[in-house]
Amino acid sequence: MNKRHLGLAGGILGLGLLTLVHAAGPRPEEAVEYRQSVYTVIKWHFSPIGAMIKGEIPFDAAAVSRHAQYVEMMSAAALDGFPAGSGPDAVQDTDAKANIWTNWDQFESAMAEFHKEAVQLAEIAKGGDAGTIRAQFVKTAETCKACHREFRAD
Ligand code: HEC
User: Which domains does the chain have, with CATH numbers?
Assistant: First the structure.
């Protein structure tokens, strides 16, 4: 590449970065991508805890604790993925129902409920007791189901 081409490439790169930085906010499709990714991570870490307490895979207290910490972290991140205007009327490829935004307080408290139980699960997991972990896992799973029943299309 000669100097002129390099300069051009640099200019285009610079413009791209500027667009990235100066964007007014995430596009609706990006919000959908973000929240679906967050839930993918949640499932990735939540499922093995379930498999362990069901005896499908060997119980490993350290692994449960690590997984539970990721679920806790993601439970705090999920709400960010639902900005106004990212519902099914704006994006085709989403299972989020429009009632999230018309019943925002209820949705927010369903998320808070999930977060509360996830924090508790991470706390209990540190103790490593299979029995109490099982009980708290079930409680947390109920908050997933409750929100999906109300706010996710299947
Ligand atoms: C407060 C509401 C709420 C809670 C709590 C919640 N979810 Fe969801 N979940 C949703 C919504 C809404 C979607 C649809 C997102 C979309 O398609 O835009 C979703 C989507 C998903 C998906 C599909 C992601 C994809 O790739 O499309 C998985 C998996 C999932 N949730 C798992 C869970 C698990 C596991 C829990 C609990 C540990 C949980 N969710 C808790 C609302 C919730």
Answer: 26-151 (1.20.120.10)
